[in-house]
Amino acid sequence: MPGMHGTYTSNQAIQKSDLLINIGARFDDRVTGKLDGFAPHAKIVHIDIDPAEIGKNIATDIPIVGDVKTPGVLQRVSGLFGRRGFNIESITVGQSEEPGLSRMVIVTIGDDKTLEQIEKQLYKIIDVIKVVDFSLKPMVARELALIKVKAEPSERPEILGVVETFRASVVDVGPGSLIVQVVGDTDKIDAMIELLKPYGIRELSRTGITALDAELSVLKGKTIAVIGYGSQGHAQAQNLRDSGLNVVIGLREAPKSPGHMVRRTYVEGFGVPGLIAIEQDATGKAKDIGLAYAKGIGCTRAGVIETSFREETETDLFGEQAVLCGGVSALVKAGFETLTEAGYAPEMAYFECLHELKLIVDLMYEGGLASMRDSISNTAEYGDYVTGPRVVTEDTKKAMKEVLTDIQQGKFARDFILENQSGRAFLTATRRNEAEHPIEVVGGQLREMMHWIKK
After folding, report:
1. pTM tops 0.85
2. Pairing verdict, β 169-173 and 304-307
3. Which fold does the domain 73-136 belong to in CATH?
4. What are the KARI C-terminal knotted domain coordinates in residue numbering (predicted)?
5. pLDDT tens for residues 173-207?
6. Class of domain 217-309
7. Would the annotation count 133 as a binding residue?
8. Any binding-site annotation on 320?
9. For residue range 375-426, what is the model confidence (pLDDT) as tens digits?
10. Is 356 flagged in the annotation as binding?
11. Class of domain 139-213 as given by CATH
């Protein structure tokens, strides 16, 4: 090292030099001393990637702006991790937006102290210009994978279904294999690999994660109004708020019916019940506006109940999963399978377990359980009382409570978000399998003959 902290030999060399070159290092009196005395005859050359640094402290005769890429930077970085016992999950290197400047993305796992130490050590490598910890800021991260999967002609439609689900692409076709390219986050790629494993993965190559920081500044100073239904509106509003943005929640009017029924009943001169929830009321008129909106879409014709975002969201999710969709679908299929496995005709099983369900639900819809029981035969009513508790047991109710807990604690929301982030593989595969259930096959054939239900 030269200068006031340097050795005698280096200072003597500078004293006699005709050319003094500084490459990407701090160039000031602490390094070189006063050059009019230390190197009175030398031409000063300063090479740096940042032009603002050139001539900043020492007058420069020959300024050069550029990135001096010495070989072995990747080796020194990876060696640093190896020597200190830091594990590298993945590492990617490529050209950046600055000519001659590369971006290196390293994925590693450690506690705050370990990550701080890694950052300090990286800054000691002279070729490292800047270190960014993406775990502390918003980012966009992706990786690419090439998967060579065994694919006999009979299996290819199924494999292509998986490829389509993950928005991947086939980049090469061989006699007995396909090479699939998929881009996405790690969870998405992991999920796709798991689905392709049963077919036989012959080769797999993953690039590792590359990332850029996402810029929130375009939203700073702005107010974001979230007008949403269900868990999506609530979750996105909370995430935006926790990201430091100014978020307001709009009033909410939730009709208790699918959209097409809202329209149909309105046209018929009726309406469906609605719920109104107000999270924030800056003007003091939110309820009046909400009720006016409810009247505009016809809900006040049937009645509007005041609730909260949380109550409506949690009860809605529970009702869908445990009773209206998940519970009823599972019960109908179980009944159909019980009858057909006992040798009864699928057509009879369909009518008894699915078709006639509408008749009973309509009676319940119009007058409640008591009215429904008053309308059915004594035999059916007696069977209701003695058999219902055998099918829906205390264990069933316990499972329902577990479902509700998952909803209240956010587990269902996290699982569903992860499902969408990973390409909706489970949802798509299950949807396809359910469409092939025997009750759907025979039901489709029977409904083709029921012209009156198609209007």
Report:
1. no
2. unpaired
3. Alpha-Beta Plaits (3.30.70)
4. 308-453
5. 888 899 999 988 888 888 889 889 989 999 888 87
6. alpha beta
7. no
8. yes
9. 999 999 999 999 999 999 999 999 999 999 999 998 998 888 888 877 788 8
10. yes
11. alpha beta
